[in-house]
UniProtKB/TrEMBL annotation:
<dbReference type="GO" id="GO:0009228">
    <property type="term" value="P:thiamine biosynthetic process"/>
</dbReference>
<keyword id="KW-0414">Isoprene biosynthesis</keyword>
<protein>
    <recommendedName>
        <fullName>1-deoxy-D-xylulose-5-phosphate synthase</fullName>
        <ecNumber>2.2.1.7</ecNumber>
    </recommendedName>
</protein>
<feature type="binding site">
    <location>
        <begin position="149"/>
        <end position="150"/>
    </location>
    <ligand>
        <name>thiamine diphosphate</name>
    </ligand>
</feature>
<keyword id="KW-0479">Metal-binding</keyword>
<comment type="subunit">
    <text>Homodimer.</text>
</comment>
<comment type="function">
    <text>Catalyzes the acyloin condensation reaction between C atoms 2 and 3 of pyruvate and glyceraldehyde 3-phosphate to yield 1-deoxy-D-xylulose-5-phosphate (DXP).</text>
</comment>
<feature type="binding site">
    <location>
        <begin position="117"/>
        <end position="119"/>
    </location>
    <ligand>
        <name>thiamine diphosphate</name>
    </ligand>
</feature>
<feature type="domain" description="Transketolase-like pyrimidine-binding">
    <location>
        <begin position="328"/>
        <end position="492"/>
    </location>
</feature>
<dbReference type="Pfam" id="PF13292">
    <property type="entry name" value="DXP_synthase_N"/>
</dbReference>
<keyword id="KW-0786">Thiamine pyrophosphate</keyword>
<feature type="binding site">
    <location>
        <position position="379"/>
    </location>
    <ligand>
        <name>thiamine diphosphate</name>
    </ligand>
</feature>
<dbReference type="InterPro" id="IPR009014">
    <property type="entry name" value="Transketo_C/PFOR_II"/>
</dbReference>
<keyword id="KW-0460">Magnesium</keyword>
<dbReference type="InterPro" id="IPR005477">
    <property type="entry name" value="Dxylulose-5-P_synthase"/>
</dbReference>
<dbReference type="GO" id="GO:0008661">
    <property type="term" value="F:1-deoxy-D-xylulose-5-phosphate synthase activity"/>
</dbReference>
<keyword id="KW-0784">Thiamine biosynthesis</keyword>
Length: 629
């Protein structure tokens, strides 16, 4: 017998909307059961999806999707949405090559109104849809679902500021679970919490008035009640000022409703039905619990933000963060290095835009809390903040994913590079990232970094090179970036010192003849493997900027064919910089550029993706052998 009999009958939201409202709690319970089973097998984002089950059911029940638009911020919480919109039978393919994407994707379903993956875009996108629908006069509604973590980003407030001054029908749902990936930071979460406490303050007055007669008759009960009242009042004291004025969101021009229990599906449906009839910008504040329905995830939402799988007994899940293994990951290499470097230099400060665990800064925060700064989901601010520190003699290290560094490009150029400030960017997840797909792939940083004046760019080929190049770039009195891939390297022996290497100098890893391969970063290992059968020379270039021009010219003189290899977009990347050197010196030799072609990459197993892109050792050998004839 099926554990999800009601859910099994729902092929689309239209079928859900034909059900009696009283059946929705059972639908939500079955949806959570199915989610536990499917994610437990495939892995993926976990706690955030469990927390959004009732909200997803209520939204599809009230709104006429896909004509009405649901825009999910980031997309970590979109699995229940996928299950209810005809993709239930494909959930076993989640995040696998050729299967369902881990985030909403417009080409995957008409119910995915907007492709997402980065935070804080939902309000702006939904506002654009609302304006388009108003212009067309079609009466469709737009809803943006954004978490309290994503609401800390400036882009969300830019959209709120714009929407509040426009005559459009837009609903913003603030899904408040007091978390992003790590615990929230900053003033806004405290403000939201004070709103909830303020609501408790009003509730207390009602309870007190209605129950005083009963409490008077119970021995000792009034004394206990007075202590509880005093505690709640002390919690609410910080909200007293807010009681005298409109809420933050009302000041932005939104009608505020809430807080509402985000796990009471009937209440949510009733509130959403009323809000759907209202005109103008509306904001619904919903309180949910990340990991709701799975105790381990409720108790440790950081650990269970993403999982690889769940044991059948529910004992201890494997998290999406790589487990400690015989070979440390590049992230772990960085985490150990920054602690060692901080111990040697009191000027060092670490900055992360809400990625403490993912960037390897947990141990640093524990050892150097006064020099650790989590600025929230605010990449732009992180970079300018680092620039300000550098102006006053500190040595900031910004730990950031390649895909998220894109969000702070203006600040990187204007606030750091043009002023030649010594900020080190530890650029994690460079290259193919696997299951998270194109929104998280770090394929463009070499192209967008190397055109910026004053920047030094390093690409380590193994774990020890990562430590060496981090130490080297940290010592510079200039902006620098060290980009390294996700996962483990080739198992190199790692130094425990803080040695440095010469800036802008590469090293020949293998001497061959006829063909020379200029390999950058993660492509050195496959290039060396391919070179064994090709008898080719392999140069580990180490630096993309400044390039080792002397080494390029030397190898160009005594080889017939030149190859560049990088895990980055071919356009404007490291290979292009080699071509520029050759052109500058008037050298005419056949050159094969190998990198990621001009295409949007897919999600799936990284090894398969690299092979399909022609970046595995076997593919490199085949491409070079077929070209250098």
């Amino acid at each position: 017998m099926s554990k999800t009999p009601l859910l099994d009958t729902l092929d689309n939201p239209q079928a859900l909307r034909r059900m009696d409202q009283d059946a929705l709690p059972q639908v939500a319970a079955e949806l959570r059961e199915f989610l536990l089973d499917s994610v437990g097998k495939t892995g993926g984002h976990f706690a955030s999806n469990l927390g959004a089950v009732e909200l997803t059911v209520a939204l599809h029940y009230v709104y006429n999707t896909p004509e009405d638009h649901l825009v999910w911020d980031v997309g970590h919480q979109s699995y229940p949405h996928k299950i209810l919109t005809g993709r239930k039978n494909r959930m076993h393919t989640m995040r696998q090559y050729g299967g369902l994407a881990g985030f909403p994707k417009r080409s995957e379903s008409e119910y995915d109104a907007f492709g997402v993956g980065h935070s804080s875009t939902s309000i702006g996108a939904a506002l654009g849809m609302a304006v388009a629908d108003k212009t067309a006069g079609n009466g469709r509604r737009s809803v943006a679902v954004i978490g309290d973590g994503a609401m800390t980003a400036g882009q969300a407030f830019e959209a709120l500021n714009c929407a509040g001054d426009m005559d459009v029908d837009l609903l913003v749902i603030l899904n408040d679970n007091e978390m992003s990936i790590s615990p929230n930071v900053g003033a806004l979460p405290k403000y939201l919490a004070s709103n909830v406490v303020r609501d408790m303050h009003g509730l207390l007055s009602t309870i007190k008035a209605q129950s005083s007669k009963v409490l008077d008759k119970l021995p000792g009960a009034m004394e206990i009640a007075q202590k509880v009242e005093h505690k709640i009042k002390s919690l609410a004291s910080e909200a007293d000022h807010a009681k005298q004025s409109l809420s933050l969101f009302e000041n932005f021009g939104f009608d505020y409703t809430g807080p509402v229990d985000g796990h009471n599906v009937i209440e949510l449906v009733n509130v959403l039905k009323e809000l759907r009839t209202k005109k103008g910008p509306q904001l619904l504040h919903v309180i949910t619990k990340k990991g709701n329905g799975y105790k381990l995830a409720e108790n440790d939402p950081v650990k269970y933000h993403a999982v690889a799988n769940l044991p059948k007994d529910g004992a201890a899940a494997e998290t999406g963060t790589p487990k400690p293994a015989a070979r440390p990951t590049y992230t772990q290499v960085f985490g150990r290095w920054i602690c060692d470097q901080a111990a040697a230099d009191p000027r060092l400060a670490a900055i992360t835009p809400a990625m403490r665990e993912g960037s390897g800064l947990v141990e640093f925060e524990q050892q150097f809390p006064e020099r650790y700064f989590d600025v929230g989901i605010a990449e732009q601010h992180a970079v300018t903040f680092a620039g300000g520190m550098a102006c006053e003699g500190m040595k900031p290290v910004v730990a950031i994913y390649s895909t998220f560094l894109q969000r702070a490009y203006d600040q990187l150029v204007h606030d750091v590079a043009l002023q030649n400030l010594p900020v080190l960017f530890a650029v994690d997840r460079a290259g193919i990232v696997g299951a998270d797909g194109p929104t998280h792939a770090g394929l463009y940083d070499l192209s967008f970094l190397r055109c910026i004046p004053n920047m030094v760019i390093a690409a380590p080929s193994d774990e020890n090179e990562c430590r060496l190049l981090l130490s080297t770039c940290y010592q510079l009195d200039a902006p620098a970036a060290v980009r390294y891939p996700r996962g483990s390297g080739c198992g190199a022996q790692i130094s425990d010192g803080l040695e440095t290497v010469a800036v802008g100098k590469g090293i020949v890893r293998r001497e061959g003849r006829k063909t020379a391969i200029f390999a950058f970063g993660s492509m050195v290992a496959p290039a060396l493997a391919a070179a064994e059968n090709l008898n080719a020379t392999v140069a580990d270039m180490r630096f993309v900027k400044p390039l080792d021009e002397a080494l390029i010219l030397k190898l160009a003189q005594n080889h017939d064919y030149l190859v560049t290899a990088e895990e980055n977009a071919e356009q404007g990347g490291a290979g292009s910089s080699v071509l520029e050197v050759l052109a500058k010196h008037g050298i005419r030799k056949p050159v094969l550029l190998i990198g990621v072609p001009d295409t949007v990459t897919e999600h799936g197993d990284p090894k398969k993706l690299l092979a399909d892109l022609g970046l595995s050792a076997e593919a490199l050998e085949k491409r070079i052998r077929g070209w250098a004839v």
